[in-house]
Amino acid sequence: MTDAPEREDVRPDPRTPAPRTPVHPDPARRTSGLRAALAAAAPTRPSGWVALCALPVAAALWLAALPGVRLSRMGDLGLLQALPPLWYAAPVLLTLGFVAVLRAPVVRHRWAGAYVLALILVIHATPSLLYPTLRYAWAWKHVAIIDTMLRHGGAVPGAGKLDVYNQWPGFFEFHALVLRATGLDSVLGYASWYPVITNVLLLGPLLLLYRSFTTDRRLIWGGIWLYYATAWVGQDYFSPQALAYLLHLTVIALVVNRLAARRRLAGAKAAGPAGAADPEGAAGPAGARALGSVLDASARAGWRAAPFALLLVLIAAIVSSHQLTPVMLAASLLLLALGRRNRRTVLPVLAAVVGLTVLWDATVARPFVSANLTGLISALGSPDHNAVAGLARLGEAPFGQILASWADRGLTAAVLLLALAGALRHRWVRRVGLLPLLAAPVLVLLANAYDGEMLFRAYLFALPAAAFLAAALLWGHRAATRAEDTLPPGTPPRPVGGPGGPLRTGVCAVLLLGLLTGTLFGYYSKEAMNYFTPQEVAAVRYVAGTPAGSRIISLTANEPGGELNYDTHDRLVLGDSAGEDLRHLAADPGDALRGALSAPNAAGGPTYLILTRAQVLDCELTGLLPASAVQGLAAAAAAEPTLRRVYANQDAVVYQYTDSDAGGGAAAPAGGSTP
Fold first, then answer.
1. Which of 9, 50, 114, 547 has the least C-beta neighbours within 10 A?
2. What percent of the chain has pLDDT over 90?
3. Residue 552 forms beta bridges with which residues?
4. 228 burial type by CB count under 10 A (0-12 exposed, 13-18 middle, 19+ buried)
């Protein structure tokens, strides 16, 4: 008997998904679903359409306006006179669009951040795109220092007055390291974009700082917008100050964020298990939330090793790069430490700042500190002089510069008044560390004049706190102030209320436009002297190529790289004279020039005189010398028999002193003269 054939088990395996019947979607249903999605995403109010459309339109207008800029039109109002009307429409639209973004029921980080980035580009990328050369004489100076340090492999011997940079070399050594790592020949490749890079990088610490104060996105982004819309001081160029300021704000943001974490833990403990959740989980972008969560994790135990090591690295970079910034940082931390609950967090950081600063000043920077100690001590007894030292006399300056100067000061006063009004209106902002950050720069202002710049430096360092306080005034709600009584001490309230009515929105828009106008006056009004033509750059490079031991005489230091080869060349700036010598230069420029030329050159090399377009504008726009003195000096140089013109173009002229008794008869470099 044969076995029956075995039947295949055709029962379905329960692990195998059942076959699906293909479904062909109905085209009509798919179209209706797409329409519904678009309808849901479309703005439901006019302000929503403004927020959606203003950004791309403003970007298009800005890019379309740039080809129409004529740099030759710059006068006593600088770049403001060269920009076409189409350009001005871009910041106006950005401001209106940003106000509309904050008016939305829910403020989205991406839209607010996009508007802030667009504002940064419109203000700070415009000169970078328009100018064929690096702007600002101090930026050129720092490029020359880096090139010279690279050539020497470190500190520059025989640096003379520029030896101070050997004592604070952090910024220069960092960029020298970048050049070695990348193989670039010079930092000129990216120095022109340094203002854009610096301001974009500042977004990180600003977000972290403001997120430590509140969970209200309107206040966070409103404060950030106000910061960039009122930062007229212009310390974002290629300089140690720009790097040190970025690091300073990062340290402050990390410390304040740690203080906020401790307040949250105290609030959660007071509220019981229901308050243990993080109330700020959605207050910032993912990066800021991640960093905040890392700091929260160890808030009870104080600083952990890794975050504190990061702070030490940042503080060391600040101390080794700039003289003023460590003092500002120490003053801010000192005032923050006055609160008893803050001391466990702040005092270790303050001790690190003071210790590293004292150590650096007593060792590497000892020559400078010893030479200037008397002046530093005497400045402590002249707070009134320090506070007004930056207010230069403008009697001889053109009307445009007088107008710009008053616009700067009016903007500074307006921002500080708005900040004080915000602090008075909302009690909770007085409990989260904002007032110490606002007041600390004032203490340093009263202690030192910092070559007449301290007033504006103090405004720059106070601006992050002032901008947030002003935002609290414009977009904060009284309901939030009343709600603070139910929270643990020092805890900022949750967002309460909507964006405000049309009247409030209109007032905010007009106020923001006014503040931005003041910033444009402050940031662009001196661009006629900050801009250097390629012809001026060529003339300065010709002078830099003269034989070692040469002495270079110029009217002012406003040159594109006058410090090139400063280790082998001596430099004399006539406009740096003081007192009677400067008055003599103004009264009899020809005699002052002959006296400078006849002075013996200790190095024994030839003597050259360089006069450029930017030097003349420097005298005119700052009121350093009357126009008659500048014209008289140029005429005296052209008529002086001991001066031989060796290089000239439409924007610069170079003379060589030919008096054989002064050792000035050496041949000029060949191949550069274009008479």
1. 9
2. 64
3. 571, 608
4. buried
